[in-house]
């Protein structure tokens, strides 16, 4: 514990992660800073490889073996990055719950869903009947039909949408203050996606739970996020209130993302990929990592890395020309 006064529920300050791949090492996360406030949804958005999932996993020390970290992850008044693994395990699942992308990988195939959802209530010393009642209530809350029938089912006996709901029920069992959801709807069909997202958004409203949502899908973010953190090549490109970021981006990368997604900024019905390939955090271009793809690039961009700076209260951009970016 420290005497640092809490400013947000979760405050990430200059988070760095260094990974080794063979003989080379790479700073895959480079000075990531953002915060998550109670009762709000913060979206981590970016293309594949931008570091958004790595960021989410670093917050709760779920990193590949050998990863080195620096910076701070303030959880209320405690720095989780410097905390012992045992303490982080206590926080994870209890105060901070994680909903993974692929429930089939995250759920134990040899245990019934009822047993898995009931793990925390059981650890709390509830009687067998009380655990069962709690699990049935959780299954009902996440919209699983016939909870009495489903409680004894194994994960493979459920549909993809139901498995994702089981993951959410597991997350809720510990009554967390923050839920980290990593692409929670990617594997689902469009209708089920909408239902699962509505369920997560409803929880935030009813329970005041904060949500950190990781997604590559800007349409999802436009619908549910209060605040956005846009990531590129393991760095924060831009962050601020979601509506302001989407309506008047202050980074050419955010603008390109928004302009290439149907129904966010354009009338186009088809998402077009961004031109050029995403930068590899193991081999970042010098200066601004986005410069090979940026229409506004100048000589300065090729040599000087732009730092994340506050343009107006709550709006940050890591672009030398942020003030000149037009929607
Ligand atoms: Fe483009 Fe330069 Fe801004 Fe990078 S710093 S996004 S290259 S204008």
What does this structure look like?
This protein has 327 residues and is of the alpha/beta class. It has helices at 52-59, 85-91, 103-106, 113-117, 119-123, 128-141, 147-150, 160-173, 190-207, 218-224, 242-247, 252-259, 299-303; strands at residues 10-21, 24-36, 41-45, 68-75, 78-79, 96-99, 178-182, 210-215, 227-232, 235-241, 309-312, 315-317. The chain has a single domain, classed as P-loop containing nucleotide triphosphate hydrolases (Rossmann fold). The chain has 13 helices and 12 strands. It has an 8-stranded mixed beta sheet, sandwiched between helices. It is globular. The chain starts with 9 loop residues before the first strand and ends in a 10-residue tail after the last strand. Mean pLDDT is 88; it is low at 1-6. Iron/sulfur cluster binds at residues 251-252, 288, 290-291, 294, 296-297, 301, 306, 319-321.
CATH top level? Alpha Beta
Low-confidence stretches: 1-6
Total DSSP E strands: 12
Largest sheet, strands/sense/barrel: 8 strands, mixed
Shape: globular
Mean pLDDT over the residues = 88
Q: What is the assigned CATH homologous superfamily? A: P-loop containing nucleotide triphosphate hydrolases
- List the domain count as a whole number: 1
User: Gap between N and C termini, in Å?
Assistant: 44 Å
Structural class: alpha/beta
Percentage of residues assigned to helices = 25-40%
């Amino acid at each position: 514990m420290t005497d640092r006064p809490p400013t947000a529920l979760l405050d990430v300050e200059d988070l760095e992660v260094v990974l080794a791949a063979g003989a080379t090492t790479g700073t895959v996360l480079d000075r990531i800073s953002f915060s998550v406030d109670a009762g709000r949804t913060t979206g981590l958005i970016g293309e594949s490889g931008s570091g958004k999932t790595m960021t989410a996993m670093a917050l709760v020390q779920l990193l590949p073996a050998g990863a080195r970290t620096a910076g701070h992850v303030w959880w209320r008044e405690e720095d989780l990055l410097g905390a012992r693994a045992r303490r982080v395990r206590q926080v994870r699942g209890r105060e901070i719950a994680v909903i993974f992308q692929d429930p089939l990988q995250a759920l134990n195939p040899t245990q019934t869903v009822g047993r898995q959802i009931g793990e925390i209530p059981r650890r709390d010393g509830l009687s067998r009947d009380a655990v069962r009642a709690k699990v049935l209530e959780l299954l009902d809350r996440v919209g699983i039909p016939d909870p009495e029938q489903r409680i004894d089912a194994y994960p493979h006996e459920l549909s993809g949408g139901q498995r994702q709901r089981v993951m959410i029920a597991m997350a809720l069992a510990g009554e967390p203050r923050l839920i980290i959801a990593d692409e929670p709807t990617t594997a689902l069909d469009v209708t089920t996606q909408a239902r699962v997202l509505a369920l997560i958004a409803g929880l935030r409203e009813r329970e005041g739970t904060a949500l950190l949502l990781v997604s590559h899908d800007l349409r999802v973010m436009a619908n549910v996020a209060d605040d956005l953190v846009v990531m590129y090549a393991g760095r924060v490109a831009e962050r601020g209130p979601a509506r302001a970021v989407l309506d008047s981006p202050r980074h050419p990368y955010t603008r390109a993302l928004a302009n290439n997604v149907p129904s966010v900024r354009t009338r186009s019905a088809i998402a077009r990929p961004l031109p050029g390939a995403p930068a590899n955090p193991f081999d970042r271009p010098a200066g601004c990592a986005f410069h090979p793809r940026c229409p506004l690039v100048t000589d300065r961009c090729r040599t000087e890395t732009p730092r994340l700076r506050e343009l107006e209260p709550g709006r940050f951009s890591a672009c030398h020309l942020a003030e000149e970016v037009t929607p």
